[in-house]
Amino acid sequence: MRDLGQQNFGKLQHTSKNKIIFRAVVFLIIVGGVFYFARSRFSFSGESGSSIILREAPRGLTPVEIDGSIEDLEGIDLTTQQATFEDVKYNGQATATATRSFGGGTYILTVDATLPDPVNVSYQVWLVGGGKATPIDYMSGSKTSWSLNLRSLDKYSQYDGIWITLERTKDSLSEEHVMEGSF
Which positions, given as ranges, span the membrane (predicted)? Predict the structure, then answer.
């Protein structure tokens, strides 16, 4: 048997305190890491992912005087037109509306369509005029609801026709016409 009187219990207690402190430090580091990761991945403050933060304007601002009257201010008149479409593929089952506004160097085009679900192909919008067709962009959507929104410099207002085509390859050649219309 061992003689317990020869044992150094003070040293044994000292090493177990070191282990407890080491474990506590490791635990705090892990908890801090989880908190940091969760805060960086998830928004707990109600802010959106945008870098724009809206704040209330400072109090006590002084209004700015405008020389002349409001009637003297010049605005830009936008021309707004609606397109009428004809279904050339689905025997009247497809419908679409298009609206364009242009003026002051800006062109805005909105196309909304109810079209059959294209399996593994895309719908594309084209503007037509002067004997040439210009591809605009592919429509986004799913199942039967498709749309396109474009806002750009005015380089399309001279086109008076609009097509929606079914595209199997993404190139600059129009393929299968679905809807044809004019402004």
Answer: 20-38
